[in-house]
Write a structure and sequence with these properties.
About 65% of the residues lie in helices and about 0% in strands. By secondary structure, it is mainly α. It starts with 6 loop residues before the first helix and ends in an 11-residue tail after the last helix.
Length: about 70
C-alpha cells in the first residue's frame, strides 16, 4: 500500500475518530447512530494510523507530501 494520507489529514482523522468513538461509547448516542459513530470513529483512527485510505485511491486524492530524491 502506498501512503496517501498526509500529516495534517492524519491529525484531523485522529481527532474526528476519537470524538466519534467517545460519543459512541459514552452513552450519549443510541441505536443506529451509536453504531455509525463507532464505525466511523474506528475507520478514521485506523486509516490515520496506517496512512492509507482506500477511498482516496478510488478518487485519486493524495495528501501525502512527495519527498524529493537527491
Amino acid at each position: 500500500m502506498k501512503k496517501n494520507v498526509g500529516t495534517g489529514d492524519r491529525f484531523l482523522r485522529v481527532m474526528i475518530g476519537v470524538i466519534a468513538l467517545i460519543l459512541g461509547l459514552s452513552g450519549m448516542l443510541e441505536g443506529t447512530v451509536k453504531w455509525v459513530a463507532l464505525g466511523v470513529g474506528a475507520v478514521m483512527v485506523v486509516t490515520a494510523s496506517v496512512q492509507f485510505c482506500p477511498l482516496y485511491t478510488l478518487l485519486g486524492i493524495n495528501t501525502c507530501k512527495v519527498k524529493s530524491k537527491k
